[in-house]
Amino acid sequence: MAEEDSSQEKSEEATPRRIEKAREEGDVPRSRELSTFAVLMAGTVGLWIFGGNITESMMNLMKDNFSVQRAAVFDTNQMAIHLASSAEEAVLGLAPLMALLLFAAIAGPLGLGGWNFASKALAPKLNRISPISGFKRMFSMRSVIELIKSILKICLVGGLAVLIMDWMQYEILTLPMESLEQSIKHSMVIISLSAIALSSATLIIAIIDVPYQIYEHAKKLKMSMQEIKDEFKETEGKPEVKRKIRQLQMEMANSRMMGDVPDADVIITNPTHYSVALKYDPKVASAPIMLAKGADQIALKIREIGNEYDIPILEAPPLARAIFYNTEIGDEIPEGLYVAIAQVLAYIFQLDQYMKGRGPKPKDLGDMPIPDDLQHD
């Protein structure tokens, strides 16, 4: 039992296949703190860059809305035109900032985990609405860590806000003493600087959170040795399945090979262990081509097909072994066997003529020249 339990310990790093499957299910490392920092910083930078335009739009809105003629107030058409003009002014003033915030909201999450669209993540899951699962999540270690981060953010941002207010106290108190236009512009500067300082505080939390999220994600995807073995079997195929596939492939190949035997010009045998079927067509190749070869039962089958189709069968053990071991199906015979095969083809031709009564009976072939490097016992 101890060995069985230890084998289930998830101590191994996730395989590429496991990581790929996790991405397909939408499980990638994400940092909310990084996304929050990106949006806040984009907003503050946007205020700093576009603050002048926003201030000018606000002033124009105030001028237009506080200087409406009394007659226009009671004219429905004039008020509709005035409302459309005010809305256009507000949209034009805020559009650049809103566009920057939208870009940050999209780009922020991509900073960790990259772009990943997973349709499986959209599928409904019962554990998301299960009270028991929700209760477990509420009191999980992850929830405790999130609570600690929230407290840390409140303390950090709140403390920094107090320091900023104390630092800018004089400037804030002198705003009522300035003109309206100057006060609005000065307020935008104070707000922009304060927002940048407060947003920078979230960077500290993001720097801590990003490595933690990467670590947590890698830890969650860790695998046991048994899981790795199961994945390997699933990917590579079980040994018995692979053997069956190889067997079927061999059977299919043999079936195709046997279908070519009737086209052979001669079958050379061992006589009991090997058989090779050759065809010679000068229009196709400069040397005879092996159509089929086999040992034992397959060799016997080749001879049976040869007898069925009246193909000449010649017993030449050394030549049969040399062709069997040095030639693949569909290839030409080696150059070193040209002379021996030429003698075989000549013998077959003379034998055919003799059987038709057109010539004398050919002499036995006897020993045929086979190079030492092509011989096989």
TrEMBL record:
<comment type="similarity">
    <text>Belongs to the type III secretion exporter family.</text>
</comment>
<keyword id="KW-0653">Protein transport</keyword>
<feature type="transmembrane region" description="Helical">
    <location>
        <begin position="147"/>
        <end position="168"/>
    </location>
</feature>
<dbReference type="Pfam" id="PF01312">
    <property type="entry name" value="Bac_export_2"/>
</dbReference>
<keyword id="KW-1133">Transmembrane helix</keyword>
<dbReference type="InterPro" id="IPR006136">
    <property type="entry name" value="FlhB"/>
</dbReference>
<keyword id="KW-0969">Cilium</keyword>
<keyword id="KW-1006">Bacterial flagellum protein export</keyword>
<keyword id="KW-0966">Cell projection</keyword>
<dbReference type="InterPro" id="IPR029025">
    <property type="entry name" value="T3SS_substrate_exporter_C"/>
</dbReference>
<dbReference type="InterPro" id="IPR006135">
    <property type="entry name" value="T3SS_substrate_exporter"/>
</dbReference>
<feature type="transmembrane region" description="Helical">
    <location>
        <begin position="97"/>
        <end position="118"/>
    </location>
</feature>
<comment type="function">
    <text>Required for formation of the rod structure in the basal body of the flagellar apparatus. Together with FliI and FliH, may constitute the export apparatus of flagellin.</text>
</comment>
<keyword id="KW-1003">Cell membrane</keyword>
<keyword id="KW-1005">Bacterial flagellum biogenesis</keyword>
<keyword id="KW-0472">Membrane</keyword>
<keyword id="KW-0282">Flagellum</keyword>
<feature type="region of interest" description="Disordered">
    <location>
        <begin position="1"/>
        <end position="27"/>
    </location>
</feature>
<keyword id="KW-0813">Transport</keyword>
<feature type="transmembrane region" description="Helical">
    <location>
        <begin position="34"/>
        <end position="54"/>
    </location>
</feature>
<keyword id="KW-0812">Transmembrane</keyword>
<feature type="transmembrane region" description="Helical">
    <location>
        <begin position="188"/>
        <end position="215"/>
    </location>
</feature>
<protein>
    <recommendedName>
        <fullName>Flagellar biosynthetic protein FlhB</fullName>
    </recommendedName>
</protein>
<feature type="compositionally biased region" description="Basic and acidic residues">
    <location>
        <begin position="7"/>
        <end position="27"/>
    </location>
</feature>
